[in-house]
Design a protein that fits this description.
The complex is a heterodimer of chains A (332) and B (313).
Chain A (H helix, E strand, L loop, with lengths): L4 E14 L2 E14 L3 E5 L6 H9 L7 E10 L2 E2 L5 H7 L4 E4 L3 H4 L6 H12 L5 H14 L5 H4 L9 H13 L5 E5 L7 H18 L2 E6 L2 H7 L2 E6 L2 E7 H6 L4 H8 L55 E2 L6 E2 L7
Parallel strand pairs in A: 3-8, 3-9, 6-7, 7-8
Antiparallel strand pairs in A: 1-2, 1-4, 4-5, 9-10, 10-12, 11-12
Helix pairs in contact in A: 4-5, 4-7, 5-7, 7-8
Chain B lengths: L2 H10 L1 H19 L3 H6 L5 H11 L5 H14 L12 H36 L4 H15 L2 H15 L12 H35 L2 H8 L4 H23 L1 H6 L2 H6 L5 H10 L3 H29 L7
Helix pairs in contact in B: 1-15, 2-5, 2-15, 6-7, 6-9, 6-11, 7-9, 8-9, 9-11, 10-11, 11-15, 14-15
The chains are: A alpha/beta (332), B mainly alpha (313).
Chain lengths: 332, 313
């Protein structure tokens, strides 16, 4: 059902010019976002998740960054090289984003009502002042903020982190976007609040039918909320599949490593208390990527052929439908 | 917290501060400065003349009494008479305030408007040509001593080109204009470098905050992002810098007034220092201390207007 596909990212390459040369923060990324579905993008810090998100929003700081090649198609229309004024009509309206830091993402000197109304005023100028104010209150109610009529006149510092993230969600959803990009929306929050926020996003997705791109490093969050997952490493997607396939049959050693590093509290399975598994080493510097597979120095299954000169491994279909993996020596 | 109560309480701080200011003035004049009697009577004064003058000026009283006299002056604003010209000091201040303000008033408005709008502009175009151009210009302005700028301006614009009066002053509204234009222009240039650098740094500090990214992600234009979101958050340091300059406006420009022969308060202070005219210096020091305290309170009150996180305590 191709009409369900609202956002397509094709061979996206994002480069940053630095003093030490050009760095490819995102290097050939492909994924699709479907209406009413959530795609998770998982990876360690510096794997290019956030840059991918900013590229979709058209917010890559330029200079030093730029989209070097590839396509981002929104409802079939290319967002790359779109006129700035055209892009502003989509940003915040059709494609909205929430960020990792609820504590600092809201402007401290404006009331939250003002900040919600601002985006409504921008994209729905036909609404009157009163309608707009009413809508801001409605949005606060929608995201579960108690006594929204009162809260609407409060400033961000009067709200807790979880409440602020709800306000961010209210801002992002107030124009009923087709795509919501959530960049680590729960990382800075308490675990209990995390669950509430994820629950809220799921609920609102059902009501509004938007596609969500959920960026996270937390596989637990992915398991809870996503329909499909792409695992990123060094600016590339190394494995993508639907959630069940990925969790049941991780094929890339990196994906497997990520899963093994989730602490387990399963006391019934008879396992003795084991040391937490980690992935040895660090993400290689983007300035100095190895020949062959980028994961070779940390991989437990590395072979001579992985270190060869034949370039990066490409995504190839693996067992199961829609399961792709980029590995010279995948797990079976 | 009641605003008036807050202001009242803050103004109470004036009392200990004035005591301190008086102590500093007193110590400086009695222990560091030369005996004013020698300056006033000249080289050939007799011991008797000096003693008489000391008695007349109250300098033969015990130190503690002299100090308390100074404190009394500070609280009553009764500054007495100048030792040098025998004029009432309040009359001197009234006479000098007009000429000083005719320069510092327009200068303050022009240079603040120029540096803040320029800072917003270069912060908007950060890293681009215009930013670098203004950077170079402001560093040039910062590096040249103001004395050199004044002398060059007088020589080039007033003497060589004959566009302005070289120096002098006439009282009354339209009459003073030809005399103040050149000093104003030169001082706009002298202040421009430092102020623009300061405001640019303040604005850029805000320009990379997370809420700016949020504002952009809403689809706001860059203009709105800078002038609404960034500017309002930069207001605290900007306000502080703006308001704290006001008391010095009243003090006048020491150097400019001397060089342009403008009979303002700045020139009056310079003359008083040269003549060891203790009461005049005392009066101006006390007044400016008072002004700084007053405008500090005003700054604090204004903070609460621009930043909802601020609460008066």
């Amino acid at each position: 059902m191709s009409y369900d596909k609202i956002l397509e990212v094709k061979d996206l390459v994002v480069e940053f010019k630095t003093d030490r040369g050009i760095v490819k923060a995102v290097n050939g990324v492909n994924f699709d976002v479907f209406k009413g579905k959530t795609i998770g993008i998982v990876g360690e810090s510096g794997s290019g998740k956030s840059v991918t998100a900013l590229a979709i929003m058209g917010l890559i700081p330029n200079p030093p960054g730029r989209i070097a090649s590839g396509q981002i198609l929104f409802n079939g229309k290319s967002l790359v090289n779109m006129e700035a004024s055209e892009m502003r009509k989509i940003r915040g309206n059709k494609i909205a984003m929430i960020f990792q830091e609820p504590m600092t993402s809201l402007n401290p000197v404006f009331t939250i009502g003002n900040q919600i109304e601002e985006v409504i005023e921008l994209h729905q100028p036909h609404l009157s002042n009163i309608e707009r104010q009413a809508k801001a209150v409605d949005m606060l109610r929608l995201v579960g903020i108690p006594s929204p009529e009162k809260r609407v006149n409060e400033y961000p510092h009067q709200l807790s982190g979880g409440m602020r993230q709800r306000v961010m969600i209210a801002i992002a959803l107030s124009c009923e976007p087709d795509v919501l990009i959530a960049d680590e929306p729960t990382t800075a929050l308490d675990v209990t609040i995390q669950a509430q926020i994820l629950e809220l996003m799921k609920k609102l997705q059902k009501e509004l039918g938007m596609g969500i791109i959920l960026i996270t490093h937390d596989l637990g969050v992915v398991a809870e909320t996503c329909d499909s997952v792409s695992v990123m490493y060094c600016g590339q997607i190394v494995e993508s599949a639907d959630v069940e396939t990925l969790f049941n049959h991780p094929t890339h050693p990196y994906t497997k490593g990520l899963m093994d590093s989730i602490p387990s509290f399963d006391s019934t399975s008879g396992h003795k208390k084991e040391r937490l598994q980690t992935i040895e080493g660090m993400v290689p510097s983007l300035f100095n990527l190895p020949n062959g597979c980028n994961f070779q120095d940390r991989c437990s299954k590395v072979t001579e052929s992985c270190r060869g000169m034949k370039g990066d491994p490409v995504l190839k279909p693996s067992k199961g439908e829609g399961h792709f993996v980029a590995c010279f020596n995948p797990l079976s | 917290m009641n605003l008036y109560l807050y202001i009242f309480r803050r103004l109470l701080y004036v009392i200990p501060v004035l005591f301190g200011v008086c102590l500093v003035i007193f110590v400086l004049f009695n222990l560091v400065a030369p005996d004013p009697a020698y300056t006033l009577l000249g080289k050939h004064a007799t011991i008797q003349q000096i003693n008489e003058l000391h008695h007349e000026l109250g300098m033969d009283k015990p130190f503690i009494v002299q100090y308390l006299d100074t404190v009394k002056t500070a609280f009553t604003f009764d500054f007495g008479y100048s030792w040098a010209s025998k004029q009432n000091i309040w009359d001197m201040i009234k006479a000098g305030a007009g000429p000083s303000l005719s320069i510092t008033g327009p200068l303050y408005i022009l240079s603040s408007l120029l540096s803040i709008s320029l800072a917003l502009l270069v912060a908007y175009f950060r890293g681009k040509f215009i930013d670098k151009f203004v950077l170079v210009l402001s560093i040039v302005g910062l590096s040249i001593p103001s004395l050199a700028i004044i002398l060059f301006g007088q020589w080039f614009f007033a003497y060589k080109l004959g566009w302005f009066e070289i120096s002098g002053y006439e009282n009354g509204f339209p009459n003073f204009i030809p005399y103040v234009i050149l000093p104003i222009i030169l001082y706009v240039f002298i202040f421009f470098g430092g102020d623009t650098r300061f405001y640019r740094a303040v604005i850029l500090d805000e320009a990379y905050q997370d809420y700016v990214r949020t504002a952009r992600s809403k689809g706001l234009s860059e203009y709105k992002v800078m002038f609404k979101h960034v500017l309002k958050n930069s207001m605290i340091p900007i306000l502080t810098n703006l308001i704290i300059q006001i008391p010095s406006l009243i003090l006048g420009l020491l150097l400019a007034e001397t060089f342009f022969s403008i009979p303002g308060l700045g020139a009056m202070v310079v003359k008083a220092i040269n003549n060891s005219d203790f009461p005049v210096i005392k009066a101006m020091t006390i007044l400016s201390a008072f002004g700084f305290i007053l405008f500090n309170v005003l700054t604090d009150v204004l903070y609460t207007v621009v930043d909802p996180r601020m609460k008066l305590k």
